[in-house]
Every structure is written in C-alpha cells, then in structure tokens.
Amino acid sequence: MAVTDVYISALDHNKEWAAKIAQEDPTLFATLAIGQHPQILWIGCSDSRCPETTLLGLKPGDVFVHRNIANIIHATDLSSSAVIEYAVRHLRVKHVVLCGHTSCGGVAAALGNKPLGILDPWLLPLRQIRSLHLKELQGMSATEASLRVVELNVQEGIKLLKQKDVVLEAIEKRGLQVHGLIYDVACGVLRELDSNEPEEAIKARLASFKLEA
Ligand SMILES: [Zn+2]
C-alpha cells in the first residue's frame, strides 16, 4: 500500500481543519482578518514537540510567538529582540512566557563536546551555564543534568528579558507579567518556575537597566 506523503496529507488536513474551525466559531476567521490582539508572547524552543498554541488549548490569534533552538535569549539577537519589542510595545501583550522543555536537543548538544558549526556560538549561553554549574551537574545523571540546564537557561533568559527597557517599562506602567515554564514532552504538562525575586535584586535591576524617556 502506498504511503501518502505527510506534506500532501497535511494540506488536505488543513482544508478539513479550516472548515471545522469555521463551523465551531463562525466569526473567528473574519475577526482575525481585521487584526490580532494576542495577550501572550510565547518564547519557546523550535522543537516539533512543543507546539505552543496547541498545548495551551488556544486558537489562531491568541499567541504571538518566537521560537529558536533551545529557547535562548541572546541580548544582541535581532530576531527575538524585534519580536519582543513588537509584542510588548505595539501589541501590548499581558504575559511574556519563556518556556524550556524536557529532552531538549540543544541542551543535550551543549552538554556534549562535539563541534557543531554555527550551532556552537548559538549554544554558547548553555555552555556558560554548564561551566558555571559544572560541579552540581557532574553529580547528576544525564537526564537530571539536562533538566537542570533547561531550568537554569529559562531563569537566565528571564533575567535577560527583564533587563530590556521595553519589558521593564511595561512591567512598571501596565503590570506586564513575565513567566518561566518547563514543558514535559513525555506527558504534555507545563510546570511554572518560581519567579520571585528579592526586593534588592529588583531595585538593582531597575537602577541599572531602566532607561529615561
Ligand atoms: Zn529544545
């Protein structure tokens, strides 16, 4: 029996999906054609097992998205910076979510020592985390160490997000919330990371990164 190519069958599924959504929510596509008002900016991994809108049970128009390998925030990355600026300043999202996930290939690569070409500078922040926490990681199994780096990477990314003036301004002026999550690809469940900061750290961050209008 001939196996249908996944791309061909996906195009067929799209027609069925569009018809089903139009039936369930007759005004959705007409509303989306006018504009978007997402309340969530999702920054996650490009991994095929982490489809943000699906796993949140949301619809087109609900989530503004940036995904890259291992959900890394690089302070000088033009792509994620443009997405964050547009989502926070212009779309005025209420929540910024940075989500890491279990079994992340980018994290596994950074915990190994194979040369990976252009991926090496991209994964550098993960190797820096590895270096900083080497002792702790060496005392763990490979799975535990990988999950620990996933968590530390999200915490580091949240720190960098909160060093961006556009984010600081939105937190102060309209209560923008920044969240760290870990997605378990083995069960489909999200877990929130503790994002509480000591008062002193908040003060130091504002004094150092808040720019004057
Ligand atoms: Zn990943």
From TrEMBL:
Keywords: Lyase, Metal-binding, Zinc
Pfam families: Pro_CA (PF00484)
Requisite cofactors: Zn(2+)
Keyword Lyase in annotation: yes
Source taxon at top rank: Eukaryota
Claim: Cell membrane is one of the keywords in the record: no
GO MF annotations in UniProt: carbonate dehydratase activity; zinc ion binding
Binding site for Zn(2+): C45, D47, H101, C104
Enzyme Commission code(s) on record: 4.2.1.1
UniProt remark on cofactor binding: Binds 1 zinc ion per subunit.
GO biological process, any: carbon utilization
Reaction(s) this enzyme catalyzes, per UniProt: hydrogencarbonate + H(+) = CO2 + H2O
A single cellular component GO annotation: cytoplasm
Family in the record: Belongs to the beta-class carbonic anhydrase family.
Described purpose of this protein according to its UniProt entry: Reversible hydration of carbon dioxide.
Name of the protein in question: Carbonic anhydrase
Organism: Aspergillus ibericus CBS 121593
